[in-house]
Prior knowledge:
alpha+beta
Amino acid sequence: MTYYEDLSPYEYVKESIPAGVSAVNVGWLEPGEEYTQGEVPEGFTDALAVMVRDSRRMKMRGWHSCRLAHVGYTEPYPTTVDVGGQKLSLGGAEIRVVAESGEWLIAPDLVLHYVSNHSYKPPTDFIEAVMDRRIAPGE
Length: 139
Ligand SMILES: [Zn+2]
């Protein structure tokens, strides 16, 4: 996957963004690139997990795997996550939410793994949009 700085203009599947909508990147992490780490609010990870289970967008064939270092264990391919007893493969879709400003915030679904396993702390707008379940329209 390509590295995109948080809140940089979204370009990956640009033609999928409706005209007039501004969209930015969240959570496109790669080894060697700095990212914000920290605690996320109570309930955020659960809300994100439900979104990954129910509201993924831009599903693609195959998976990108997490390439960050996993200390003390080997992450399987594809990267998987357990959501309420259901095993989901990450790395083949996006999460798209809407900030209060109307801007779309677009993350790879791997963002759930980054938050859970790599202490990634997404920008506040993204955290709020996920907790408020402001999911962008689309398939
Ligand atoms: Zn990882």
